[in-house]
Write a structure and sequence with these properties.
The protein is of the alpha/beta class.
Length: 363
C-alpha cells in the first residue's frame, strides 16, 4: 500500500483498493497491549509505569462494543488471554465468548499459540454457526518474532530477496519479510473461506495493526518515520465490505482510537461515545489529528495532515517536522503559530486521556 517494491502483501493491497482504506492511520503508542487497549476503549494508554491492562484501576473501561444491542460478541486469540491481562480487558465486553489456546482443534506452534491461518479458519467455522448478528475480534500474532511459518502451509511461497533490498525497503531479515508475506497469505485464506458463508455479503471486515514496526522507511516516507520513529505507530486501516461500502482511499491523519466510533456509525447503531475517537466518515468532523506517546523517553505529540509535533514531559524540548514531502516552508511566525496550536492540542489529549483511564469505568 506504500508503494514498497518488495510487495509483501499483494492480496491485502487488492482488498485496500476495494474498500475504505486510510493510508495515514497511527496508533497512540508502541506495544500490543497498549494497542488493543486503545482500540477497544478508544483511549490512548498514556500510563507511564506499566500497561493499563495490568493496572486494576484502569483495566475496567467502558467500550462502545456494549452498545451493539442484539449482537453476540466474540474474542479470538491464538495464544492465552492471560498474556498482558487481555482477559481482564476483554471482560469489559458483556457476555463475550472468549476463545483461546486450548479451545482450538489446531496445535500450538509457538508462544503465540496456533497459527494465524488456523486461528482465522477456526474462527470462521465458529462464526458460521452463529444465528444472530455478531461482533468478533480476531487477534493475530504471526508477524511477531519468532516468525514461525507452519510446515503444513506448504503452498506458502517463500520468495528470495537480496539482503541489500531488504535493508533498503524496511525489513531487517528475510524471516521478517516472510512473516509479513505469511500474514497476507493468512488473510487471503480467511477471506476465501468467509466468502463461502452466507453472512459475508452483510458483514463489515475491519483490518488494522496493534502497532507499527521499526525499519528503514526512507524509500517511501518522509524523515519523521525514521528520525521521530513514526514507523512504530503507522498501521493500515481498512474497512472492507464490497456489497455495502464504496471504495475510497483516504489520506487524512486518523487514529486507532477512531475505529469503534466509525464502525458504530457504519452500522447506524445508536451509541454513547465516551472515547477520544470519532466517526471518520462523519462529514462534520473538522481537524484531523492522531495523538502519539513514547513512554520511556517522555515524548507526547500529535500527527496532523501535514506535520508531526511533539514535546517532552520531562524536559523542555519540542519538535515540528513534516509528514508530507514538498510542503511550503513556514515563516518563523507561522511555525510558532502551528507549534502553539498543536502543543495545546497535545496537552489537551494527554491530560484528558490520563483522567479517562481512571474515570471511564464500565458500569
Amino acid at each position: 500500500m506504500s508503494g514498497n517494491p518488495l510487495n509483501s502483501t499483494p492480496y491485502f493491497n487488492r482488498m485496500c483498493n476495494e474498500g475504505i482504506f486510510f493510508e495515514r492511520c497511527f496508533t497512540p503508542s508502541f506495544g500490543t497491549a497498549r494497542g488493543v487497549f486503545a482500540t477497544i476503549t478508544g483511549i490512548p494508554d498514556v500510563q507511564l509505569s506499566k500497561f493499563s491492562t495490568r493496572n486494576e484501576e484502569s483495566v475496567n473501561q467502558r467500550t462502545i462494543i456494549n452498545d451493539f444491542d442484539g449482537y453476540e460478541k466474540y474474542y479470538f486469540i491464538g495464544g492465552r488471554s492471560q498474556f498482558n491481562n487481555f482477559k481482564g480487558l476483554i471482560s469489559n465486553i458483556k457476555n463475550v465468548h472468549l476463545f483461546e489456546e486450548g479451545k482450538y482443534k489446531a496445535p500450538s506452534i509457538n508462544v503465540w499459540g496456533i497459527s494465524d491461518k488456523n486461528l482465522f479458519l477456526e474462527a470462521n467455522d465458529i462464526l458460521a454457526k452463529e444465528q444472530k448478528p455478531f461482533f468478533a475480534i480476531i487477534q493475530t500474532a504471526d508477524n511477531h518474532r519468532p516468525f514461525n511459518i507452519p510446515v503444513e502451509d506448504s503452498d506458502f511461497v517463500r520468495r528470495t530477496v537480496p539482503e541489500d533490498s531488504l535493508q533498503n525497503y524496511g525489513f531487517e531479515t528475510l524471516k521478517e519479510y516472510h512473516a509479513f508475506a505469511y500474514t497476507d497469505y493468512c488473510i487471503q485464506k480467511f477471506m476465501e473461506a468467509a466468502r463461502k458463508k452466507p453472512w459475508f455479503e452483510n458483514t463489515i471486515f475491519v483490518f488494522t495493526g496493534d502497532h507499527g514496526v521499526e525499519g528503514n522507511a526512507t524509500a517511501m516516507y518522509p524523515n519523521a518515520w525514521n528520525d521521530q520513529r513514526l514507523s512504530e505507530e503507522h498501521v493500515p486501516l481498512l474497512f472492507y465490505a464490497p456489497a455495502l461500502l464504496a471504495a475510497q482511499k483516504r489520506t487524512e491523519a486518523v487514529s486507532q482510537i477512531d475505529i469503534l466510533p466509525t464502525i458504530a456509525g457504519m452500522m447506524q447503531q445508536p451509541y454513547l461515545n465516551s472515547t477520544l475517537g470519532r466517526d471518520l466518515l462523519d462529514k462534520s468532523k473538522k481537524e484531523n489529528a492522531a495523538f502519539i506517546i513514547y513512554h520511556a523517553p517522555g515524548w507526547i505529540g500529535v500527527v496532523n495532515d501535514d506535520y508531526f509535533f511533539r514535546k517532552n514531559i520531562r524536559f523542555k524540548k519540542e519538535e515540528l517536522v513534516p509528514v508530507r514531502n514538498n510542503l511550503p516552508a513556514l515563516s518563523v511566525q507561522q511555525q510558532d503559530s502551528v507549534k502553539k496550536h498543536l502543543s495545546q492540542l497535545t496537552s489537551a489529549m494527554y491530560e484528558t486521556a490520563r483522567w479517562m483511564l481512571i474515570n471511564n469505568k464500565n458500569k
